[in-house]
Amino acid sequence: MRRRIGIVGAGWTGAVAGRLLTEAGFAVEVMEKTSVVGGHSRAETMNGVVYEPNGAHIFHTSNAAVHQFVNAHGLTRVYDHKVLTEIFLSPDDGDDEGRLLSWPPQVDELKELPVWPTVERELASLPPEPAGDNFEDYVVSMMGRTLYDLFIRDYTAKQWGRPAVDLSARFAPKRVELRDDGHRGLFRDRWQYFPPNGINEVIESVLSTVAVTLDTEITVDDADRLGQDYDAVVITAALDDFARCPGELEWRGIEMRSSYTPTDDPARVLTPAYVTNRPSARVPYTRTVETKHATGQQIGGTVVSEEMPGAPRRHYPVLTADGANERRNAELAQTIAGHFDIPVYFAGRLATYRYINQDEAIADAMAVAERVAADLSG
Ligand SMILES: Cc1cc2nc3c(=O)[nH]c(=O)nc-3n(C[C@H](O)[C@H](O)[C@H](O)COP(=O)(O)OP(=O)(O)OC[C@H]3O[C@@H](n4cnc5c(N)ncnc54)[C@H](O)[C@@H]3O)c2cc1C
């Protein structure tokens, strides 16, 4: 008889693990609590305009196996993602006009600013390697105080709802950079894509051969039933949610305040870029997102979303300098596994409480599928 695998969640991780385990000959069921697949990466439409209710999602990877997999499922439209950021040189002066610069900051653009002499002095006295345990110290050691204040300080405080000294330096290298090589794209990965209709079609293609049950929330209370129905379970849900102890883990969420505007010109967009960072404390949102820049949709309207931080949703794990939340997640994983008498695997962004991108979620799914297959075939 075919071995049976239950998978909790139909985002990238659940979808890819489901597909690979189905292809490996297992009887797989993916259970999803909402009425749609795709998780956080999912796009929606408003009056026909594709937009992203969970924030901008650009697919980028240097992982050849991940690339080959998504390519085979139709993710082929090349897209070079460039971000702009609006900075104000006098933070408290309402008459000061914002300036649009590249993100990450480019030295050649910074040289045009009146604050360049100060920035140049600060850059000349940086340590040879960035250092510091918390986010602020680390980033100041990378770019100096003036650039930190202009580009990072208020953005970080808005995004995380706490001062940057309370945050871990661990994710700074991934998020913050000062460029002097002229490379304007946000990412340096070998492959970058944005599908014309959003990512849904790709994830739906991955799931096309997999049994999916929608509108089904699974929690630790279902452990006995899962133990009867399956030989192993893969959990991609947030563990505090799954264990029914909300508040046990700290999360930071966003709310995309999205509004539709009709346009006479089908190519018209209203903001300067797909993603425009708004680091100033003058506005409560952290960035604006206008997905039409990326899709290239020709349609008589557009949707602009203001990304409001602080919503009570599980979007970002909060990686504090002391690592307490990650330890709590590991404890929850152990507690949950203790409720099952079948093997339980945790994978993906939510269940492993990691700040990972779509390609990393796919790689995670590939790894967990391999582990499950090896364990159950042995
Ligand atoms: C604001 C934001 C911006 C991002 N931008 C990018 C980007 O530009 N590029 C990039 O590559 N990545 C980006 N990411 C990361 C990307 O969203 C994730 O890496 C990816 O979605 C992770 O997939 P996943 O399947 O692990 O989790 P999810 O997509 O969260 O999927 C989990 C699924 O499980 C379901 N579920 C949860 N609990 C249960 C339960 N108890 N029972 C049943 N089902 C359940 C959920 O409904 C969901 O469908 C961004 C993330 C966020 C939050």
Short précis:
With 378 residues, the protein is of the alpha/beta class. The protein contains 14 helices and 15 strands. The strands form four sheets. A six-stranded mixed β-sheet has the order 7-6-12-13-14-11.
Note down, in words, how this protein is organized:
- By secondary structure, the protein is of the alpha/beta class.
- Among the domains are: 4-41 and 199-248 and 317-377, Rossmann fold, CATH 3.40.50; 105-175, no CATH class.
- 33% of the residues lie in helices and 20% in strands.
- The chain contains 14 helices and 15 strands.
- It has helices spanning 12-23, 64-72, 107-110, 116-124, 135-143, 145-160, 172-175, 200-206, 223-229, 239-242, 292-295, 324-338, 348-351, 358-377, and strands at residues 4-8, 27-31, 44-46, 49-51, 59-61, 83-87, 99-103, 191-193, 211-213, 232-235, 251-262, 275-277, 287-289, 301-317, 344-346.
- The strands form four sheets. A six-stranded mixed β-sheet has the order 7-6-12-13-14-11.
- The longest helix is centred in the last third of the chain and has 20 residues, at 358-377.
- The chain is globular, with a radius of gyration of 22 Å.
- Residues 8-14, 31-34, 39-41, 54-59, 217-219, 236-237, 241-242, 254, 315, 348-350, 356-359, 361 line the site of flavin-adenine dinucleotide.
- Flavin-adenine dinucleotide is lined by residues 8-14, 31-34, 39-41, 54-59, 217-219, 236-237, 241-242, 254, 315, 348-350, 356-359, 361.
